[in-house]
Amino acid sequence: MTASFVIAPPPQAAIAVQGETSKFPVRRVWCVGRNYLEHIRELGNDERNPPFFFAKHADMIVPDGSEIPYPTLTKDMQHEVELVVALKSGGLNISPEKALDHVWGYGVSVDLTRRDLQTISRKKEQPWEIGKSFDMSAPSGALVPASKVGHPSKGKIWLSVNGTERQKGDLSEMIWNIAEIISKLSLQVELGAGDVILTGTPAGVAALQPGDKVECGVDGIGTLKFEITAPK
């Protein structure tokens, strides 16, 4: 029996797949905080604390080539380039040894952050949503299947603005690796097919302004481009 709704259901959030017309349907978006040591240091946080998880809404994903209006309420929106892990299955209490069996593929995304609002929330010990979860805050490049690229444990991750490199790191510098991230997150919530995980950002985060052209990527995985435009 086909379900009926009192209003039209929203479109399915999705990420493109390299070389395919079919897309990857997104169920949930999870992000890892503080997973590169140099980024922890540049923000002045305690590097002894383990990474933690927060979420963005799936419909905040926008595709490669997007024009993203500068968001409301902030004077300090910053870029954070991240490796994306896309899951084909999930569960609770997944062991690190079995975690990679649940991965469909990989990509690159930017966790756009209203840093001033995030900082205020942190000082007040309030949730981070106002700083992290806003419209078009998760531009994402096309995914590539793990069957083609394997499971990356090293490789340059980088971001440039207007042709000048700002962020540069290596996947080998992650405090928690991909399998450990999946395993730890599955203790907090039951993971499922369509979940995507942004795995943290290296050092070099900085503010964006209207007119900025952003290009980023993970070597061997893919690239992403977008432009910041004037506020709505």
Automatic annotation (TrEMBL):
Record GO terms (molecular function): acetylpyruvate hydrolase activity; metal ion binding
Key words, A-Z: Hydrolase, Metal-binding
Domain Fumarylacetoacetase-like C-terminal: 29-228
Protein name per Swiss-Prot or TrEMBL: Fumarylacetoacetate hydrolase
Organism: Tardiphaga robiniae
